[in-house]
Every structure is written in C-alpha cells, then in structure tokens.
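LAB NOTEBOOK - FOLDING QUEUE
OPERATOR: T.R.
BATCH SIZE: 2
PURPOSE: Compare the predicted structure-token outputs for two unrelated chains run back to back under identical settings.
PRIORITY: normal
REVIEWER: second-year student, initials M.K.

ITEM 1
FIELD SEQUENCE / FIELD STRUCTURE:
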Amino acid sequence: MDESSDVEPAVPDGPLLRLSLFGQMHAVGASGRSVLPRSRKARAVLAILALASPKPVLRSKLTGLLWSQRAKEQARGSLRQSVHELQRALGQGTGTFAFLHADRNYLILLENRLWVDVRVTAGATAADPQGLEVFRPTLLEDLEGLDPAFDTWLAEQRLRVTQQALSVAEAVLRSEQETGRRIAAAERLLAIDRMNEPAWQALIRAQLEQGDRAAAQLAFGRYSSALLHVGRAPSPETAALIRGTPRAQRSSAVAMQLNHVNEGIRLCVLRPRSLDGSRQDGSLPGLAEEIAAAVSRFRWVSCVAAVPHQRPNKTPLYDPGTDYLLDSTLQRFGKRTRIILRLLDLHTGGKVVWALHCDREVDDVLTVQSEIAGKTAAQIDPELLLYEGKRRILREPGEATAFDLTLRAIPAIYRLEASGFFAAGELLSAAVAMEPSNVTALSWCVYWHLLLVGQAWARDPVEAMMRASELAERAVTLDSSDARTLTLVGHLRGFLHRRAEEACALHERAISLNPNLSLAWCFSGLANCYLGRHATAIEQIERARHLSPHDPHAFFFDMALLMPHLLQGQFEEALALGRRSIELNPGFTSTYKGYLATLGHLGRDQEAARVLARLLTLEPRFCVRGALERSPIKQQADLDFYAEGLRRGGLPES
C-alpha cells in the first residue's frame, strides 16, 4: 500500500475562498482558479450566504428571494439544483475543504478561511479605514433582474453597505488634519459618493492650501462634470472656493451653460521673413502655405489666412480671433539656409510655446518645404494639445463646453498617473454626454479606454472594450475622414480585438489622410509587429519618432519599438529602448513586459528581478498565462519567444 496516500494534503496559506461581490461577482479558490457557478441563480445563492455568513439562511428565505413567482415545490426543487451546482463548483476549487453546509431547513457558508470584499469594507473604522479601498459603488451588478424580490433585497443591501462605508469615510475626513491625508480622505469619500459636496469642498481647499491651483481647478472640473450628468451646477459656495471670492460673482447656472458648438484652435501661419526684417525672402516661397496645409489635417486646429503685407494704418497681420501665431525666419549662409519657427500664444501677449530650427541646403525647394511642414505639423499637434489643456485647467470657472472638458483631460492622459487618469475619464465622459457628436471628444475617450485596459486599470476589461468599440464606431460614423479617429479604431482592433490585418488597413488610410500624425505611424508599426513584419514595424515606428522626437507620448513610441527589436533577437537595442521608456514614464506597465522578456533572454537575473518586482507592483496579477491570453501577437513563434523570455525573467506561470 502506498503510504503517501495517507498523507493529509497541504493546506495553502491565505484564504481558501475569495468572493468579490462589488461590481461583477467573482469567486476564486485557493488554487487561483475561478469557482464561480455558471448559473446566475446559483451565484445569487452564494452571494446571499456570503453576506449572511456565518449565520444560517433559511431555505424558505432563499426560495422567496429567487423564485418568488413559482409554486413552493417547484421553487424548492430549483433551489436544490442550485445548491448542487454550488457544491460542485466549490468542491472543484477548494479540494477537500468544505465551505457549504446544507441541512433540511438551512444553508450556511462556513466562515473558515473565507474572504469577502463586502465584509472587509464592513470592518473598516475611522481608526483603520483601509477596508474602504475595496469598496465599489455597485454591488452584484451582474445579478440584477433575477427576481423582483431579489432586486428589492439587492437595493436594500446596496444602500446598507454604501451608508456604512459613507459613515466611516466621512468620519475619517473630519478627523484628518494633515493636508495630504485630507486629500486622500476626500478622494476616498468621493469614490463612495461622487455627489458629496463637502468632500469636493474639502478636496479643493486642501489642494489650494498646498498651492496647487491647477489640481484644485481640475477637481472643480471633475465636480462640475459629475453634476452635468444629473442636470445640476456647482453651488455658489463651491464655485467661490476656486474663484477666491466670498461668493461666486456670476450665477452658477449661467457658469455651466452648455455650448454645443464644435470648437477649434485658430492658428495663423505667417510667411517667412529674413533676419533683416523684410518679408520678401524668396528661398522658400511656399513654406507658409505648406505648413498651413499640413496643420489643417489635424481637425481640431483651424488655420486662418494672414492679412496681406500692404495693410493700412499698420493693422495686425492676423485676425482678432486668432489664438496662436506661427512665425518663421530665414537666414542664409552660402548654400545653407537656417529656418527658425516659433509658435506664439496671443492670449499671453506672444509667449513662445514651441520652437524649431532646421539647417538645410535648399537644392530642392519643394522637398525641403514639405519636410519642414511635416515636422512642424507633427510637433505642433501634441504640444498645442498639452499646452491648451493646461491653460484651460487654470482658466477661471465659466462656460464649460465639450471641447473645454476634452482639452482639460489630455494632460492627465499624457502623464498616465492613476488618479489624474481616472479624473480625465470623468471629464471625457461628461464631454461625450454633453455633445455626443463631438468627434474630438469621442476619439480621446476611445484612447482613454485603450490605455485603461492596457494599464490593467479596468475593473471589467470586457466592458471597457465594449465601451471603446461603441465610441469608436460612433466616431467613425460621424467622420470617416478623421485620421486620429481611424488610427485609434485601428489600434482598438489590433490590440484589443486581435484583428491586426484590419488594423493595418485602417492605419494606412489614416496615414494617407494625415501623413504627419505620428501616432498613426506608431500604431501601424505595432500592428505590423503583431503580424511578424518586424522590419516594417521598426521603419514605421522610427518614422513616428522622427516626426515628433519630443512627443509627450515618446515613452509609448519607445515601448512600441522595443517589441520588434526583441522579437528579432536585437536585445541590446531593446534594452536601451526599455530603459529610456521607463525613465520617461516609470508607471507605464507595457514597457516592463518587453523589457523583462529581453532581460530573461539575456540571462541578466538581478536586473530582471528588479524589473519583475516593479511590474508586479504595477500589475499584481500579471503572469505568463495572462500574457499569452492577452497578447495580440499573431505569429506562434514570436509568441513562444516572448513567453519564454518572461519565464526566464522570473514571471510566474499563473
């Protein structure tokens, strides 16, 4: 007889069963595998027992909640079937450790080694509020509609849990004296109740105390956006905080008037002038026109014509409604010409926002003009988006349009820091709700959802993907000739839906519409990398970096370029790109994955251990199995090579 058969199975550390009831329901056994029953009624039985545990629940109560419209015998039979399903599911997930005890009248979910997120929240106190971190606004959102009696019970449970969490969060906020902790307490309270005006006021006051007026303005914008969904405006008292006056000087209702006009930035491109001050230099006679044409391909910027040189009474060279001026100077040294371009903000009296200088031999005028125009347009787009976003965040509260809210969100999207990123999502949602036909708002909302899934920040990745698809379809329907929209839809299909061939076609169309959109070149390179066309991928992503070398998303370009170099075995190039991407943005999770695989193939164990630790801090559940399931790489050899690098880098299999 095999003596090993008498040995008790090892009991794993930690909970033997983890139940998540906030949001959509999840049940995970000690092995890490899902043990959630398939039928919604069996899941509901498990949820009811978990919320009551360790107290027993009468079978008659369960049938009354879940089969209230059936005859008693039929309801009892349905309950027995659900209990059998539940027992099988829990038995598969937890081995010999029983959780469910059933007798003739009662069902009990035993408390031994059981973790339930709702109970963690219920255990939070003002002295120890950590349990509030797992709270989510919707309890068992995937079980609505099972039975009228269950829906009533569920509404009562949601109210009870929310009020309990709210009471603790309010007590914590009242007790905090230190500014930074007060900000954290206010954010925690707002995660429970977005409409809690005292929490918004506390957050704005604390940020102003820190001298961070931009953060206070963004908080006020988030509050305004939340109120827009229910047709309300900020109170005069809250508006007064951000204005710095005892009371708002204008009615908050007027301040939140909706303006449903598709806006844009007005840019005037002046003709080049030589350094002697004249505007008659003929070295590049069509440069201004080339630049204006290139910039106009970005739909959110409107190029306005310069006033002719022969102007009476020395009137300005630009229309009064112009926002920015693009000025250029030429200086010739023999065969070479130096071109200096400056973007001037007319709202601040001509502050230089961006500058570019190029030295060229002007043998082929048309080629030089086209090249300079392309680089200018490619670099002005992200610079202006970032600059305008920051400027509108700092602007005094007033009329908020969808365009305003979209631009305010962009700086946080570029930073990709969690709290600001989620605040940006609220602004974009408000912009889309305010103006559903605003293609700029829709496109940036699609991009936000793509990054949400890529960063593993989505509570429900499938739902986030569906929302992104819905927004993308609407944007393309509204404007099928907008290059940014097309390339974002392409990336959605390539990255999330793994349809790289379709993605390539969309990226090609986007590039034909706007060859100076660096993001389109980068996304096209990634799609080709997924298909195993690594040389093409490198060429296209390098084109993106050449067009916009100082792009706010340069870290994304470096990450994208890392992958084809890795998959071709060009490890030193991949390492350099990974290090630079992390230096530019240490919170971008995708970089660590390719970087770790590179280190794994090189056998650099110590550095791999450091990178792995950081990766698992950012994305704790990442594993080789998850990487294979989520990866859009189509070629099996490439996928195997990537996975092997992750394994050698120390990433757990599951």
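ITEM 2
FIELD SEQUENCE / FIELD STRUCTURE:
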Amino acid sequence: MNDTFTGTIPLQKSSGKRYWSETAFNWLERSQRRAGKLSEEPSDPTKAAWNFTRESTGFDFLDEAIKASMHSTRAKHGNRPPFLELIGKDGTTLALISVAARFVVSTRRSKFLSTSPESPFQPQAILMDSFHSFSMPQLVRIVRSALVLEMTHVRDTAIIDLEMEECLNRIHLIFVSDVTVAIAALEALRVKLKSMGPITNLVLWDEFLGKVSDTASKMEAIRQLTRLWHGTNNAFIMVASHRHNTSLAKNITCQIIFEQKRKESNLYLAKVCGVEFVVTMGTAGMLSG
C-alpha cells in the first residue's frame, strides 16, 4: 500500500448517526491544550528562553525539576523561573556547562530570523565558578556539539563557526573564588538583568560559595542571590554543591541529587522528587537524561 493514511476514520451506525473520531496523537494534543500544558512554538529568542526555563530544556530530569518547581508556591508568583539546587560530588560542573550550551543554542537569533524583530538584548547564560572548575576548551567543545546536533542539515563549516561565535558571546564566566567578589558580582548582575526586561537568563553557580566559612559574608551572598531572583523575575538559578545548603532552603523550588552509578562510569543517576533518571556524560557533555 503506497498511500499513507493520516486522517481520522469516520464511523457511522445503521441509524445514520455519525460518530466523531480522532487519532490518539490529536487526543493527546487536545488534552494538553485544555490543561494549559502545551505552549505555542517559540517565535523569537525571548519566547524560546521562556520555554526553556519553564517547560522544556531537552534534559528529562531537569524538565521534571522545572515541572515540580512550577507547582511550588515559591515559583508561582509572576511565573518566576525555578531556583534549583544540584547536589553531587562528580559531574555537576559538566552538567551546568551542558545546560548553558543547550540554552544558548536553542535561543540563538538565527533560528527565528523570519519572525523575530531585532532586539537590543538576547538571552544570556552566566556561569559563576568558585574553584576555576570550568574548562574553556571543554565549554567550546560542548557548545559546538550541541550546535552541530541541532544543525545536522548544515554542511558549511563557516556557517557553523558564525553560529558558534553568536552562542559563545552569550556565555559569561565569572570567577568568584572570593566571597566579596561574589557579592559584588551578584549586585551588578541584578541591576543588569533587571534592565533587560522580560528576557529570561540563566545564572548557574558551580561549587556554590565554595569553602566560605565567614557566616556574615555567606549570608550576604545568599541575600544578594535572593534579591537577584526576586528582584528581576527573569533569572533561572541553579546552584551546584557537594551538600545541601540549609541557608538556601527558603528559596529552593526543587532539589536534584546527582550521583555516579559506578566509579569511572559515564552513567549518572539524577534523582528528582523520588524519580530516578539515567544521565549519560561524555566529551560532548550531558548527552541524555
């Protein structure tokens, strides 16, 4: 049979009454719309950033954490983006880089040239690093891998290089080995992100507050981070550390436990609200999960 049937099947009883029917996919789509769970396809970088931080990142465990956050009373006000805590001894640095890479690739301007007006601002990814854990060659490699994966139809390396430049220009590394630097950086970020209006941005902090022992300085840094989240209403925040930060408890909308399945294995388990997700790590970053 050469023809592919894609429509619904009209059913009719002998009495002449006609039944209405639909495909299972159409039913699912209709149900999701009715529940308000299906958003329109993003038409510009701003909407793509909103969609990424509130619905779909492409990483199952992170999407589950976002879904849980959206039901949290801490995130409901003004539909504020989540404030996530990633806890683990290994793999968290690579996870944060992978999230940043996927974000800038999915929000690049060239994807929306036909429908997007020029804007002075574009979605940004801010990576805060307490112990210089981020590797620049690794970051570049992961961004390129995410880009090539999405641009499988493009064979011209010059075009990919231009896209790479655009993506990398929207990732900012801030080294905050000193807590006073972190406090100043957070204050500056709050002012800058607030000036960008409704555009959602990522703020990802690896080794949150590092080994800060001074309680007063630590609380001030947390206060500034809280002000950034509440004051801008456009910052998706994710902090990574080896253990739970009780001082952040009132802000956290969802917690993610990240564990390596076996020593020297590239498989990890991400636990979100009692649900386990298998995550694969590689040289190209976080590949699944």
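REVIEWER COMMENT (ITEM 2): The chain has one domain: 45-286.
FOLLOW-UP: none requested
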